[in-house]
Amino acid sequence: MLRRALGLSLFLLFALAPAVQAQEVIRSFQSDIRIAADGTLDVRETITVTAEGDAIKHGIYRDFPRYFVKADGTLGKVSFDVQAVTRDGAPEPFTTQAVEGGTRIQIGNADETVPPGVHTYRIDYQTDRQISFRTDHDALVWNVTGTGWRFPIESARAVVTLPNGARVLSADTYTGAKGETGQDATAKISGNHVEFQSTRMLYVGEGLTIEASFPKGVVAAPTSAQIRAWWWRDNLGAVIAYSGLAAVFAFFFAQWFARGRDPKSGIVVARWDLPKGVSPALADYIDESGLTGGAWSALSASAIDLAVKGYVTLDNLDQAVTITRTSKPVPDDLPAGQAVLIKTVEQHGGAFTIERATGKAVQAMSTAFRAAIKAENRDVFFHNNRGVFFIGLLASVGIALIWCFTSGLSSDSISAIALTGAVPLLLGILIWKALRARRRRIMVAARLLLTVAVILLGMIGLLAFLVVIDSFGDVMGAGAALTMVWGLVVMNQLFFILLSAPTKRGRDIRDHIAGLRLYLTLAEKDRMNLRGAPKMSPAHFETLLPYAVVLGVEKRWSKSFEIWLSASVAGAAAAYAPVWYSGTRMGNVAGDIASFASSMGSSMAASVPKSNASGSGSSGSGGGGGGGGGW
C-alpha cells in the first residue's frame, strides 16, 4: 500500500504540472499470447505511449527476464527471440543487449528523436519454458507488464489463446507491486482463450500478472531431447567455466611435470667457501631465479665487492653515496654486472655520486646491470619457462572471453566478477612476499606486517566472494564464473612460480648458497665448532659481506664481526678502518658498514625519478515481466 500511495502521489504531482511539462505515460499495454502445442509462446506486445522528449527521446526500451527458479531450486533459462518491432505501423530499428537477469530491447535510432505525441510500439517475440506442469492440470503464469516500468500504465490488457480445441479451466489476476496480490483486474474466459483487463491505473513499480489454467495434454510435456537441450542452455556457462579451469590446470600440471620439477636437492651443510665463478649478484640471480628488489640489493653488493677487492672506494655521506674508481686495473674476467658499474663510474670522471641529481644515470646503470646479468647467464642455471607459461596465460584469457560471450550476463556483471579477481591476485602476491621474507630473514616487524596483511586481505577476499555470490545469486552461472576467475588467477600465479626450475648446475649452486647462508647466520661459538672453519678476521668478514648483503643477512654477519672485534685485543675495534670505506660513525665502523650495506640499495632506488601515474501467484511472479523506460 505504501508503494501504491507513493506511486499515486507521483502521478498526481505530474498531473498537476503545467501543460508544457506533460507527463510521459503508457496509455495502454496490450499483450496477445498464443500458446503452441509444444509449449512455445508467440507474444505480441502493443505499447502506446505519450512521448514528450523527456525520458522518451529516441524511443523506448523493454527488459525481458530470462531466468526462473526450477523445482529443484536451481536457475533455468528461457529463450527470447525478437521477431519484429514497429512504431506506428512502420518497422523500427532495435538492438538487444544483456542486462541484469535478462535481455533489453532498445528500440529507436540514436541519431533520431521521436516527435512529441502519442506513439504505438509493437514487439513480436517468441519464448519457451513458460508453462507450469502441475499434478492435475497445467498453467501459464505470465507477468504481463512487469513491475520495472518508469512510467505509469493507464490500461493493461492481455489475451491468452490456447491451441484449437482446448479450453481454459480457470483464470486469476494479481496486481500491484512485486509480491502483492491485488485483484484490480478482471478475467473473461471464452473457449480456448481468456481476456484479462486492469480496472485501474498501474503506477510506477506496479504491474499485472495473470494465470490461466488448462487441462493436461493441451501442451506436450518436455521430451528427453528438449530436457537435454535445456540442460545445456542452463549450464553452458558453468561447463565452460569448470572445464576451462580443469583444462588450464591440466596444461600447467603437464608442463610442470615435464619441465618445472626441481632436481633433487642435496644435503645442505654450513660452508664458508664461495661458489666458484659466482659473484654476489649472480648468487642472487641463481638463488631467486632472477634479480630481486629491482636489482638494487645486487647492485649494492657488487659495489661493496668491488670496493673490498680494491677497484673502487665508497664514501657514505649523509645524503649521498659516492663510488670512486681507484688506480687498480680491472681484470678481463670481471663479472658482467660489475663491469657495468665500473663503466658507469668511469663515464662520470672516476667518481659517481648516487643522489637525486644523478637519478637518471642510476636508472640507466640499473637497467644495463640487469640486462648484463640476464644475457650472460640465461638458461645456464635455471629455466623460467616463460614461453610455456604465456601459452597457459593466453589459454586462461581465451577461456574467460569465451565465457563472457556465452554467459548472457551484462557487461556490468562481467566487470564486477572480473574485478573481484584482484583479491586473490593481491593475496597471492602478499603470500609470496611473506614466504620470501621468511626465507630471506627480513626483520620481524616486516614479516609481522606481511602476515597481518595476508590475514586481513584473506578475510576481505572471503567476504567479497560471499557478497558477490549473494549479489548475483539470481544470475545463472555467477558462482561458476567467480570460481573460474579466482581459480585462473590463483593457478597462473602458482605456476608462474612452479614452472621456473633450476638446472642441475643451478641446483648444486643453490645448495652451496644455502650452506653459505647457514654459515653467515651461525652464532660465533657454533661457527668455531665447525671443523676447518676459518677464524674470523677483517679479511674474512669483508670477503663474505657482499654475499651476506644479497642473502639479506648482512646485519647478522656484521654483528658477528663486531662481537669478534670486541673480544679481540684492546683497541682492535677502534683500529678497524678499511681503506675502501669512509662513513659517518667513526666509533663503530663495522656497524656503520652493516647499516650502509642495508641502505645503499634503498638509496639507489630513492634516487631514481618517479614516473607520473595516470505456486500461488502474486504481482511480478511467473514468466514474462521485466519493465522498461525511455532513452
From TrEMBL:
Xref: PROSITE patterns: TONB_DEPENDENT_REC_1
Domain Predicted membrane protein YciQ-like C-terminal: 273-433, 449-561
Keywords, in A-Z order: Membrane, Signal, Transmembrane, Transmembrane helix
Regions of compositional bias (Gly residues) in chain numbering: 617-631
Region (Disordered): 608-631
Name recorded for this polypeptide: DUF2207 domain-containing protein
Lineage: Bacteria, Pseudomonadati, Pseudomonadota, Alphaproteobacteria, Rhodobacterales
UniProt cross-references to Pfam families, sorted A to Z: DUF2207, DUF2207_C
The DUF2207 domain, residue ranges: 26-214
Keyword Membrane among UniProt keywords: yes
